[in-house]
Specification:
Helix content: 10-25%
Shape: globular
Number of helices: 3
Distance between the termini: 23 Å
Largest sheet: 11 strands, mixed, barrel
Structural class: alpha+beta
Number of domains: 1
Length: 172
């Protein structure tokens, strides 16, 4: 599965991004410039997410749903390495982000045996800015968490078909 994030700001106070797969827009996410909330609209419905920074020495970004329930977190293994761990719904995944080369992020299962998805952040890397740690840029971590949440949902049509072929990805 190959996806990409595209910035679609139209001069408003909100930052807006779209998630695309081939020629299909999968989701739209809008970040308020004044709050830590984001509004997402997709074929899975409308959701509101909040994001929270944790840790001083080991930075983490948490994602919560509209009810304040923690859904997951992202943590960079070593600042500037482009590698880290995403925990979503109690499962762990490993990501590798190639910021300097092509702006692509690859998400693997915890053992790094299977590539679950690849997503290009290339078209928005200028908007995100280059930082020593990926998690210092709140938008990158937030977009990564929303990407993982969306892509790993069993009710999205493309994910559901892929998961039926891989029964170990099905939730109990």
């Amino acid at each position: 599965m190959f996806m990409k994030w595209v910035s679609v700001n139209n001069g408003s106070l909100n930052e807006t991004f779209e998630l695309w797969e081939a020629d299909e827009r999968l989701a739209n996410i809008s970040f308020s410039g004044r709050t830590r909330f984001a509004r997402m609209v997709s074929r899975l419905g409308k959701r509101i997410f909040s994001f929270e920074d944790k840790g001083i020495f080991s930075r983490k970004k948490l994602i919560r749903n509209e009810y304040g329930i923690r859904m997951g977190k992202v943590e960079e293994l070593k600042p500037g390495s482009g590698k880290g761990v995403v925990e979503m719904d109690g499962r762990k995944y490993v990501f590798v982000y190639n910021q300097d080369e092509n702006g692509e992020l690859t998400l693997f299962d915890e053992s790094m045996q299977r590539n679950l998805l690849t997503c290009s952040f290339h078209s928005i890397t200028q908007r995100l800015g280059k930082t020593k740690s990926l998690l210092l840029n709140g938008r990158f971590a937030s977009l990564l968490l929303v990407l993982c949440w969306y892509a790993l949902q069993p009710h999205s049509a493309s994910s559901a078909q892929g998961m039926m072929k891989q029964p170990d990805l099905l939730l109990p």
